[in-house]
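Hi P.,

Sorry for the delay on this. The queue was packed all week, but I finally got your sequence through. Input first:
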Amino acid sequence: MPSLESSKDQPPQLRQFFPGERLHGNLNERAPDGSRDENVFDILQGVGITLLVRYHPAPPRPSAFGADLYGTREEKYSRLQSSHAGADAFVPLNPKSPNYFFVEKDEAGMAEYEQFTPIPNLFEVGGLGFQSHRDNLVVAFSEHELKERMKNFFDLNSTDADVKKEFGINDYERFIVSRFRRENAFNPRAIRRIQYRSMDYRFVYYADLIIQRWLIRVHG
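Then the structure:
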């Protein structure tokens, strides 16, 4: 539930009471009994409803409650139209740092688990890798395919409008198609073999501006 997760960034006086109903509906999710579970919206990501109540004066400790609702879209609509925030299905939750989980968690063995070194701390340097914003242009399954595609991109016999339409690209931040095509030329040395995903090797045209630079994070 994104709205609940973000509550840790709000002032304490606003975090007084959280009844949250998890409507689920993730594309790959099913109800605990194996039956069909549908989304209440036409989206792939599961959703939830959060009600925030502010008391005055504020209680000494904010309260959080949660409930789960599985089933078809029609069943969820019916339940939501007839339910209220005080439904018996809501159970008390205890979200706490650093993750603030707004679900019931089995914390057996948690103390032992937290004694291990966190995975991010094992690496001095980390990052997301490059992001092209235009993989359909600069990423291909073969070197030959990418070479021909980039040659066509740089061919000034084609208009900028035609190139944008053919490759499904647009100007983005510092990458201006008309300028880039005229200030640069095809460079075969820019074609690199990459691990696009796990066990998925492809080729990329790795050149400044047409590829967003690596996002590097250094610990410390």
